[in-house]
Amino acid sequence: MAPVPPTDAPAAPANEPARPEGDAPAIDAAEVLDDPVGAFQAITAPIVSDWQTYALGLVVLVTTILAGLILSWLLSRGLRALVKRAGDRRVGRVVDRLRGPIRPVGPLILLLIVLPSLQTLAPSLVGFARHLVSLLLIASLAWTLLVAMNAAEKFMLSKHRVDVADNLEARRMHTQLRFITRTLGLLVIVLGASAALMTFDGVRQIGTSLLASAGVAGLVIGLAAKPAVENIISGLQISLAQPIRIDDVVVIDGEWGRVEEITATYVVVRIWDERRQIVPFSRIIGESFTNWTRSSSQILGWAMIYTDYTAPVDELRRVLQDVCEKSAHWDKRVCGLQVTEASEQTMGLRALVSAVDAGKAWDLRCEVREALITHLQQHHPNCLPKSRVRLEGAGPDGFVPVPTEGSPGETLPAG
């Protein structure tokens, strides 16, 4: 066996700790005195190298953010140019609303691409930054989708106005678009929150365990969410079948009102006295109600008055026709007066009139009722309802003979 040649370097003492790799080399006082410049360079070289690396990483990050902002600006300018070429202000308003949410998307995407290349600088810091950028990107994308859906809804609804006479098709579009927008918005929020939570390791592990026990978890969640799911399914049925629409005049639980809003799970009905009635979709589907404007906004209204049997019906018909022709609420379709009731003392007259919608029909009914009563008061006060009592056996002078024991011919007044 050949002998091992001796090495020139002296062995390190057993009690001297080993110097970690990458640290600055140990320099004794003699070396500093012999070559002070070289010793200073040896000490500061690792620090300068680290600062240069960090500065380079900072420059890369700033450049990435600026490039993302420039990209977003170019995209925004391109969209604005297309809108100006199209010449539609409504599309311009949609683009203006999207400029805010789109602006941070470009820088965040570029940061998410660049950050892995800086992993060697500071692994823990870069890992935290990547997680934060991921959360911000998810929030920005969800925000952009929500704003885009809201802007698209307003753009579509602006083409279908409900403040016109024949607004049946417009109300159908409003109902469908609002329900679809609310449902999709809720779905975007749920998916965005789920994606943000799944970026955390703890939540991801919980999700994996839930998937492993999907049978029990699905049963529990299904029972807990049954009312919400039932309302969502009912809302889908309402959107397709449309038993109720925006601006419909309905009677629910004896309350007359107008459908003001349709959300993802309930309907808001504005009562005539400015109260709001909240009705879940499940009640709209499962219970009956009255819809005055289901097939058309045109409606018939009626006003009842009760008069004496001596009231001039033909004259009151002429008064009703004159009132309708002078009223701005009449749509010139129906105007008639009929005797519909007859009791022992009065007869009931029903004035039937028409209007373009329920609100104008209500006002026209009030005008007709007031005009007919005023005419009777001023021209035929004796035709107002009264009670009659007839005493049989009265003489021509209005006295009824009442026999008595003392004077058989004595009479008493009939009244």
SS element count, helices: 12
Work out the number of β strands: 10
Order of helices and strands: HHHHHHHHHEEEEHEEHEEHEE
Low-confidence stretches: 7-24, 406-415
CATH class value of the largest domain: Mainly Beta
Compute the average pLDDT.
75
Report the span from N to C terminus: 159 Å
CATH architectural category of the largest domain: Roll
Helical content band:
40-55%
Q: What is the molecular shape?
A: elongated
Largest sheet features: 5 strands, antiparallel
**CA-atom Rg in angstroms:** 44 Å
What structural category do the secondary elements indicate?
alpha+beta
Number of domains: 3
Please tell me about this protein's structure:
The structure is a single chain. The chain has twelve helices and ten strands. Helix 11 crosses helix 12. The protein has 415 residues and is α+β, with helices and mostly antiparallel strands. The radius of gyration is 44 Å and the shape is elongated. The strands form three sheets. Strands 4-3-2-1-5 form a five-stranded antiparallel β-sheet. The chain has a three-stranded antiparallel β-sheet with strand order 6-8-7, covered by helices on one side. 55% of the residues lie in helices and 14% in strands.
